[in-house]
Queue: 4 jobs
Job 1
Amino acid sequence: MIKRHGLSAVILAAGASRRLGFPKQLIKYKAKSLILRKIDLLHQLNIKDVYVVLGAHHLRIRNNLKISKNVKIILNKNWSSGLSSSLRCILNLKKKSNDLILLMLVDQVLLNRFDIEKLISTSQKNNSHQAATKYPDGLGTPAIVNYAFKKYLKSQRGDTGAKIIFSNIQSIRSVQLKNALFDIDTKKDLARLTN
């Protein structure tokens, strides 16, 4: 069973939002920026340690964050080399071998407490305590991974996300989270969110 004090969260938010044209992390939805919405969601879930991986626009985003002792910023200086560089930032986390990490993307704006509770519940039913969201093309984030996940990160390069890694892990359960299917990459996506 997962004890919340052994579950940390990592919000991947280092991208430049090139297709959108401005930092998606700072988009306001229901009066809060996407980055603050994710942090608040994790605090509602009583997740003690929250790490935010920033890169492009990091100063502007950091100025908009409520930094508390439970929120730590990780600066990804290699953010321009792709998503895998943000995932590799996890390698520097000092965690115990039985600790778990909840991986989240900043732009999956519709995810809510019930979605993450469902993910946690699914991971609790697995001996490895790992679970990932099921997509038509494989498994992805949000996901809960164990410490062994780190060994797969060293070889990741470019703009490949966790889906490639998850395809190599036998001991990961899948969960369907309808709200994870929507993310914001373009102005068209943003228009769909606000309409």
Job 2
Amino acid sequence: MQQIVSIVVKRRDKRCNSMQDFRVAKGKRKDGFTLLEMMIVVGIIGVLLAIAIPSFQKARTESRIKRAKSELQLITAAVRQLTWDTGKWPNTAAYGAPGSTEVWGLTPSSAGLVAATATYGTGWRGPYVRTISEDPWGKNYFFDPDYLISGVNRIVVGSFGPNGVGQNLYDSDDIYVILR
């Protein structure tokens, strides 16, 4: 059996005055990409994805933090207005004595921001906000009259942040606005 070897022959075509490639092996032309070329392309795409995905995730997290801060500013304004009108915090405690009762969701009427119960009295002029959505991580915003910051209890409105850990478990990714 005769061994067929693919040889590229270049010859000058006198009619069209150009160089042409001819394949001698079975008269078939070899088209497509080699395995090595495909592996190089896949490797390059992998490197680009390895660079792009962490950048995208970081930008998405930063965007969520900015959204939470913006929403907290609106909620803070509503809490201040409630307190000025009624003399009470969202936990129904008097302004001068905020107590230690946290409100883990500011949407119910007991919080006094969207609607109010009779406990707020005739001074209530709300609703102070139309709705209060969940934070960007799917958790409720909270009111905490004894949030511990650097060893001092502060009155805050906040979000448990990206990790969602909360309810008296203070950590560094909580996002909050100090009211007093």
Job 3
Amino acid sequence: MFAAAGHHAPAFGNIGYAACEVALLPEPPEFCIAELSSYQIESSPSLTPNIALWTTFTPDHLARHKTLSRYYDLKARLLSRSRLQIFNGDDVYLRQMAQEKRYPISEYACWTSIHGKDKLPGNPDLGAYIDESGWVTIQGEKLFPAEALKMPGQHNLQNMLMAAAAAHFFGIGGGGDREGDAGVSGGAPPFGTDSHLEEC
């Protein structure tokens, strides 16, 4: 979405480049988009993203982290350091976390759901969802048809909705009658350029 809007925004971490390769690129990125594993988060205690996305939580990597609580805390600390949090409201564990108002959830967090506004566990006015007419709607603004995301399967659609929310908060995204284009450049990015977001 960022690249389609004309931005130099390499993906790195678990996808695309290694972080050290991005640091050595001849042209500095406008946006740094990283998918980070818990191993990478563990070794980056000072990383402070503008936007952090928490896509799912399952009992993985326990051979390294030993307990589910420690694994959770690693991800939670990254989210707590971000300026804006985006959570997958369709993930069972994260929904439970919202109901319990657990750390690190901010009252200003953006929750997402592909199943409509009434399925958002957080403040619906701050959320991103696919409405009953099949449009991606973020913080009350109807942006583009969900079919523009062109990803099979609910899991992929959830991830794309979260990515669309992140792009929107950086001033990138479709709007109103721009049919089918989730990569149209929008207004001035509220976080400016030379920004970054992380997904865990």
Job 4
Amino acid sequence: MKTRPAVKARAIEKAKASGKTKKIKRAVLPGTFDPLTNGHLDLLLRGLGIFDEVTIAVAPSHKKKPAFSLEERLELISEAIKGIKGARVEAFEGLLVDYVRQAGAGAIIRGLRAVSDFEYEFQMALMNRSLDAMVETVFLMPSAEYTFLTSSMIKEVALFGGCVKGLVPKNVEAALKRKYKAIKSCKQVNY
């Protein structure tokens, strides 16, 4: 039988008051990652500054029409994070809090690029808390150079032949060039 969220919340407060809290060591960075951007990698690295392990949890994308299959996204992410200690990638389906529990994690990392992201992310965090009060949501802001960046924007720019260099990992840039043959060679823009 599941414990009600209010009961779990009281248990958390009691543990805090007694000093018997334990550090969360694993977190999950969920999304569709279609495609992975340097903004996502920035959040991963920031998360690894807080947690020992961060799993990029890739959702299948039932609502969106993905440019890359789930298998392709997993492969692209695996290659992009190779050598980053504590980082891994897995696919998941279903409720995020169920996956977080199953993965042995205690936190969900969500990126906030702008104030416009906050309302949606806040609602999702509260829903996840209502489903499992033991799972925390941690909001992280990306570096300023990535605050405008979305996967949808990257796909659109690539579709129309624009430059995505410096906005996505090199292997993702190459995959986008193969998929959208219109992408031209370009120089990275630095701000």
